[in-house]
Amino acid sequence: MSIKEKMKVLKIKSAQVYIAMKSSKTPWYAKIVAAITVAYALSPVDLIPDFIPVLGYLDDLIFLPIMVWITMKMISQEVWDSFEEEAKEVWKEGKPHKWYLAIPIITLWLCLIGLIVWIVIKS
Fold first, then answer.
1. What pLDDT is attached to residue 96?
2. Which residue, 35, 84, 89, 101, has most beta carbons within 10 Å?
3. Is residue 112 part of a domain?
């Protein structure tokens, strides 16, 4: 399987994680891991910034699939498979256009940055 095909599979599985996070069929503990996975995938801040050549995308190629795999293992196979068709529909017309879904993640990062700045200024 080529890297391009693997990335296509990862896109579908990432959408499945998002759908699992919203589903009432998903156990609460899997929803927490799914939320962390989605937040990381949508987050503008990575463990290793993307502007660093090669290493910048390495964390996305390693960390994100691991988080998707962990989420997958916390959900029954039957329930996980039921999300697959819906996940394929998400990417059917190209990129999803619901960018407003990233607002909570961006807000969280801004709050964390604000807290760090506040702590530095108080010190």
1. 57
2. 35
3. no
pLDDT tens sequence across 86-104? 888 776 666 555 566 666 7
Q: Domain range for residue 25?
A: 3-97
DSSP the chain: --HHHHHHHHHHHHHHHHHHHH-TTS-HHHHHHHHHHHHHHH-S--SS-TTSTTHHHHHHHHHHHHHHHHHHHTS-HHHHHHTHHHHHHHTTTSS---GGGGHHHHHHHHHHHHHHHHHHHH-
pLDDT at 118: 92
Work out whether the CA dihedral 68, 39, 44, 87 comes out positive or negative: positive
pLDDT classification of 26: cutoffs 50, 70, 90: very high
Residue 71 lies inside a defined structural domain of this protein: yes
Domain count, the chain: 1
Residue 66 lies in a domain: yes
Please indicate, yes or no, if residue 114 is contained in any of the structural domains. Answer: no
